[in-house]
Amino acid sequence: MKLDAKALRYMSTEDFRVLTAIEIGSRNHDIVPAPLIAQLSRLRSGGINKFITDLIKRKLIASESSSKYVGYKLVYAGYDYLALKTLSKRGSVASVGNQIGVGKESDIFVIAGDNEEQAVLKLHRLGRLSFRNVKNKRDYFRPDQSPSWMYMSRLSAMKEYAFMQVLHQHGFPVPKPIDQNRHCIVMELLDAHPLRQIEKIGEPGKLYSELMDLIVRLAKHGLIHGDFNEFNILIRDDGSPILIDFPQMVSTSHANAEFYFNRDVDCIRTFFKRRFGYESVLYPKFALDANKEFDLDVQVAASGFTKKEQTQLEAFMESEQVGDSNTTPHSHDEEEDEDLPSDEEIVYADDNDNDGSEDDRETGRVNEDDASDSDDDDCDIEYDRLGNTIRRKRA
């Protein structure tokens, strides 16, 4: 998803007051009516339409109609601007550079703060792919309430930042956390490469042992990563590993802790056997090696990320299979390692001229002319609630 921060400097205080009003109104409304926006932003109703029109042109909000009224909702681009505005005021983000990474549920950019030092900006975007089973296992929402992807993205960012802070304070090899707001995290930029991009290594046994020791060390501190694989491990030039991506991390007291622990171990064993031809009969076992000695999981709860928020996010992750939490260990083919960890290609609504109606996007229908011109005979095309086009390769 594009992140064009240039327009930030041209936006007025009133524009941000309208964006904030829509964000606040979205807590109780799927679409926020204009009178409520005027009330929350404390702007005159007569002048509110100008700001709303400008925000729609900039693709920061969207207009929708219900059976009772026309209203407006925040889209991820508008949520990005609200977070960037706050981070900019704090001095954490002064400029936004190139995109350096993209995942199923996040976008990653190089940024610089007021101190002109480069850092990493990670934007959580839950809902980009995991939208098909949203009505299943969602007991953390009222029956008449629709889930908010932005709220879940915010919880995901809060959780990752909280775990990163605690892990960094206790000497674990993780990036230094710098700041967090809404669904965005600012962290240290490291000179390292993803493990999945490394074809050869001098001593695979040494790195294998270090990674297994890291899994055990986390468990002894009361934590399980939950997605410990080649996509979430960086390797420095000296061969030392760096651990990233913590939204799916759980406590060793979790009901499925042993499953997550064993899956993390199996992910590393499978990858090393496939990529480096290395296999060891020695590997940690939950019952023997996960004896809890420290309570970092308790410290995370005390940091402000509440147990209720943790429960909501874990239920969402499990129901939507974010981070493959209900699947077998990762087994990506070698030829897929250089691409997204998915067989789905994402084409963002901002990147092409799609004349399809909003109703078509909600139901997953595609205009026949668009389908014939897209050369996607081998793909099934769907639209998610964010307006993104997803081309999924047919089996």
Automatic annotation (TrEMBL):
<dbReference type="GO" id="GO:0030490">
    <property type="term" value="P:maturation of SSU-rRNA"/>
</dbReference>
<dbReference type="InterPro" id="IPR015285">
    <property type="entry name" value="RIO2_wHTH_N"/>
</dbReference>
<dbReference type="GO" id="GO:0005634">
    <property type="term" value="C:nucleus"/>
</dbReference>
<feature type="region of interest" description="Disordered">
    <location>
        <begin position="318"/>
        <end position="395"/>
    </location>
</feature>
<keyword id="KW-0460">Magnesium</keyword>
<keyword id="KW-0418">Kinase</keyword>
<keyword id="KW-0067">ATP-binding</keyword>
<protein>
    <recommendedName>
        <fullName>Serine/threonine-protein kinase RIO2</fullName>
        <ecNumber>2.7.11.1</ecNumber>
    </recommendedName>
</protein>
<dbReference type="GO" id="GO:0005829">
    <property type="term" value="C:cytosol"/>
</dbReference>
<dbReference type="GO" id="GO:0046872">
    <property type="term" value="F:metal ion binding"/>
</dbReference>
<keyword id="KW-0723">Serine/threonine-protein kinase</keyword>
<dbReference type="GO" id="GO:0004674">
    <property type="term" value="F:protein serine/threonine kinase activity"/>
</dbReference>
<dbReference type="InterPro" id="IPR018934">
    <property type="entry name" value="RIO_dom"/>
</dbReference>
<dbReference type="GO" id="GO:0030688">
    <property type="term" value="C:preribosome, small subunit precursor"/>
</dbReference>
<keyword id="KW-0597">Phosphoprotein</keyword>
<dbReference type="Pfam" id="PF01163">
    <property type="entry name" value="RIO1"/>
</dbReference>
<dbReference type="Pfam" id="PF09202">
    <property type="entry name" value="Rio2_N"/>
</dbReference>
<dbReference type="InterPro" id="IPR011009">
    <property type="entry name" value="Kinase-like_dom_sf"/>
</dbReference>
<feature type="compositionally biased region" description="Acidic residues">
    <location>
        <begin position="369"/>
        <end position="381"/>
    </location>
</feature>
<feature type="compositionally biased region" description="Acidic residues">
    <location>
        <begin position="334"/>
        <end position="361"/>
    </location>
</feature>
<keyword id="KW-0808">Transferase</keyword>
<keyword id="KW-0963">Cytoplasm</keyword>
<comment type="similarity">
    <text>Belongs to the protein kinase superfamily. RIO-type Ser/Thr kinase family.</text>
</comment>
<feature type="domain" description="RIO kinase">
    <location>
        <begin position="65"/>
        <end position="288"/>
    </location>
</feature>
<dbReference type="GO" id="GO:0005524">
    <property type="term" value="F:ATP binding"/>
</dbReference>
<dbReference type="InterPro" id="IPR030484">
    <property type="entry name" value="Rio2"/>
</dbReference>
<dbReference type="InterPro" id="IPR018935">
    <property type="entry name" value="RIO_kinase_CS"/>
</dbReference>
<dbReference type="InterPro" id="IPR036388">
    <property type="entry name" value="WH-like_DNA-bd_sf"/>
</dbReference>
<keyword id="KW-0690">Ribosome biogenesis</keyword>
<dbReference type="InterPro" id="IPR036390">
    <property type="entry name" value="WH_DNA-bd_sf"/>
</dbReference>
<keyword id="KW-0479">Metal-binding</keyword>
<keyword id="KW-0547">Nucleotide-binding</keyword>
<dbReference type="InterPro" id="IPR000687">
    <property type="entry name" value="RIO_kinase"/>
</dbReference>
